[in-house]
Prior knowledge:
homodimer, Four Helix Bundle (Hemerythrin (Met), subunit A)
Amino acid sequence: MQKQLLAVGLALVLGGGYTISAFAQAKPDALVRQRQAVMTLHAKYFGQLGLMNAGKLPYNAEVVARNAGFLDALSQMPWDGFTADTKGEKSRALPEIYGNPSGFKAAQDSYRAAVVKLVAASKGGGEAAVKAAITEVNSNGCGSCHKNFRSQ
Amino acid sequence: MQKQLLAVGLALVLGGGYTISAFAQAKPDALVRQRQAVMTLHAKYFGQLGLMNAGKLPYNAEVVARNAGFLDALSQMPWDGFTADTKGEKSRALPEIYGNPSGFKAAQDSYRAAVVKLVAASKGGGEAAVKAAITEVNSNGCGSCHKNFRSQ
């Protein structure tokens, strides 16, 4: 952590001024570690919802609401970690992320919109509505972005 | 992700029934990876607040509110990953976690309470109140738990 904090401080001293995105200017390896951490937690919390949707876990509205709340936060986290200086780091990120930034942004927005719908459905929307929302997160969110911007 | 999902499914088939915590019964190495992912993201988002508190980053109420919201979610995530079967995994977790479960739970609750205060302060509480809350998260939250339950 100390190393990351120093990197952030240095970037700001060198760059002058600040923006929200400037706060995230850790070193490339730290950025990759952070965005991969977000994906690890997606696997934990969206994974449970996927199993419920597939009938492999009993449906549990309390867990759905908790996990949807966590995904509301997680779905906003990884994007500022895909900076151009991370291209050389080992990861499954494809060059299309940097070659097609508007497409990548559209995929982010599509995913985020699907999560917002899931969060809304999880607040008393009932099992059918929640499951439809989980399906949409999976296909229009995770799926479309991973297909086009992540190696399989 | 596929591997984790299979592990979850298997645990449920073997165990029968379910609870919220049962959903988290991934394999020990996955549990450690997940809880470490949470800490990586604490470093990202609480790190920025720590720098603001120390005057090393300009105070920015918008970033404070965003990060406090993220910490609200993150502060609830790691605890179900400290299961007894993770003792043998490589990590900085100390044996006191398992030898003193009530103390570990009290440290979690103390940290969580400090984050809840930070979230409240971040909603228009003003810079002085926010900085006091950041200090409390650091000392009564991160600090006390890391001192007693994590190797330095």
